[in-house]
Amino acid sequence: MPRLSRRSFLAASALFAAARPGRAAKPTGESADVFVIGAGAAGIAAARRLAAANLNVLVLEAQNRIGGRCTTDTAGFGVPFDLGARWIHSPDNNPLVAAGSREGLYSAPRWPSVRIGPRAARDSELEIFLAAEVRAQRALRETPRGRIDTAAQALLPRDLGAWKSAIDFLLGPYALSKDLAEASVADVTRQAERYAEAFAPQGYGALLERRTAALAVRTSTPVSMIAWAKGTVVETEQSLWYPRGAVILTCSTNALMRQDIEFIPPLPKRIRDAAAQLTLGSLDHIALDMPGNPLGLQKDDFIIEQASGPRTAALLANVSGTSLHVVTVGGAFGRELSRQGEQAMIDFAVQWLDTLFSTNVKRRIRKSRATRWNAQKYVYGAMSVASPGHAEARKALMEPFGRVWLAGEALHETKWGTVEGAWESGVRAAEAVINVVGRDRPREEKPKRRRR
């Protein structure tokens, strides 16, 4: 593996030293062929693939934990609580699950239970709802050819009646983290169909973290600068790092736009423009520990309501058979609620459940917690969604700049917004790096034949 040439080293050093005096005085960090920035699904997948190709890999993670937007907390409630992703899509074909065993996975509920005010929907009402939902999903999947890429909301049937708000919520904020009015119909149409869903009793994030075995991961090591034009230099608070081969950067599109990382020279315009059209939506969980099953629900009951507007949510009750109940809010309403703070989110969840079950939920809560992904440093949201008319923006992020490749759920055209999409994107970036680094290896000279 060729090291950074003296000319490239001096050029890169001069570039970042000029940008901020004193930079060059930092000590040099340990060496590696490839630096992977971010230990979420994309970063872990990339690092595993690179290591399998016998490349020396170092993963730098800004937060004090592994998993990114797929992480499991076990300390807060004493049982696994997935702070982000929980639903494991298409487990039989999910590359993350295929990377290990099924590890006790079990089927998630296929259909929600529905409440109408303080009562459960009758069978006849449930049939009408399910038929309306199927028609709405079909309308989004069967976009007429040649139709302009518009907002997904425009394709919904106009005769959804009393179920319109519930379907808007399920197909928009809950599934995408954005209202359908903000989502590109071409982007939504390309989403891979999910034939089944599963849950991991230990948590999806815990399952992901187990895939880091034997990887060199440094947590609490945020990257502050990447110089990429002539040679590649990575800066953290403690050190300067000089990758011999490449960098794979897995931060979210919102983090790219926030400029937590300084790029020297600045990011190419095509990258900035694409990220601006793939902003993250809002999706948060409000967890309530309620022992004794006060709502009288089954394990993993999935509850929605016949809503009358956007101020609605979904409930996953008795998560994996525990006393944990998780209320999920999203889209524009969820974003505004998150801005008001954790207590406002908990208050909403309590009031919402009181309305649906005619019970005093507050006195049954032992512990509570709300995620606020929009305020989470280095993330700033839930999942990428293309703005209407900009579904092609994902392709612009796939081309490297210098020796830097991007990876993450935002770079997958059919599985965006999912853990498996992020994983596959990480593998794809690693394959591209292996291809380039392989070309850089000095060729062995064949021995010359002696003339007779």
Distance between the termini: 36 Å
CATH superfamily of the largest domain: FAD/NAD(P)-binding domain
What structural category characterises the helix and strand content?
alpha/beta
Number of domains: 2
What is the architecture of the largest domain at the second tier of CATH?
3-Layer(bba) Sandwich
Provide an overview of this structure.
The chain has 452 residues and is of the alpha/beta class. The protein has 2 domains: 6-70 and 204-278 and 384-440, FAD/NAD(P)-binding domain (3-Layer(bba) Sandwich), CATH 3.50.50.60; 111-193 and 281-375, Polyamine Oxidase, Chain A, domain 2. 31% of the residues lie in helices and 17% in strands. The chain has 13 helices and 21 strands. A hairpin with a 3-residue loop joins strand 12 (233-236) and strand 13. Helix 2 runs parallel beside helix 13 (419-440). The longest helix is centred in the C-terminal third of the chain and has 22 residues, at 419-440. The chain is globular, with a radius of gyration of 24 Å.
